[in-house]
Amino acid sequence: MISNINNASANAAYSSNGKTAQVKENMNTTDTSKESSSKVDKLKESVDSGQYKVDLSALANKMADELL
User: Fold this and answer.
1) Which of 6, 28, 40, 52 could bridge 46 with an S-S bond, Cβ 3.0-4.6 Å?
2) Cα-to-chain-centroid distance, residue 52
3) How far does Cα 32 stand from its chain's mean position?
4) 50: left (phi over 0), alpha (psi -120 to 50) or beta
5) Torsions phi, psi of 59, nearest 5?
6) Number of structural domains, the chain?
7) Is this prediction's pTM over 0.85?
8) Domain span at residue 18?
9) If residue 31 lies in a helix (H) or strand (E), which one and from where to where?
């Protein structure tokens, strides 16, 4: 099932102006994915070394917020 939002995104991606926007979006996504990958690598290192600590209070608050 294709939602209206996905359909609109697809239409924008294939329109003449949408192609330029899509290229720019892909470039931004690439930069973001590089940053994300370095963050992921740092998290992996901290988990592997045993240095990663879960903030239980923040986790509990987030879970409670999601339930409400």
Assistant:
1) 52
2) 21
3) 9
4) left
5) -65, -45
6) 1
7) no
8) 4-67
9) helix 16-49
Contacts of 41 (CB under 8 A, 6+ apart): none
| 15-33 residue pLDDT tens | 555 455 555 555 555 566 7
Q: Which residues contact 43 (CB under 8 A, 6 or more apart)?
A: 52
Using the structure block, give the residue that is written with the tokens 């990958």: 37
What gap in Å lies between CA 3 and CA 22, rounded to an integer? 19
Kindly list the distances between the CA atom of residue 4 and the CA atoms of 1, 55, 61, in Å, as whole numbers in the listed order. Answer: 10, 38, 33
Torsion angle of the four alpha carbons 11, 15, 18, 22, in this order, in degrees rounded to the nearest 10:
80
**Count of residues making up the chain:** 68
All residue ranges of the chain with pLDDT < 50 are 1, 18
Record the tokens describing residue 63, joined without a space.
Answer: 């879970």
pLDDT at 29: 56
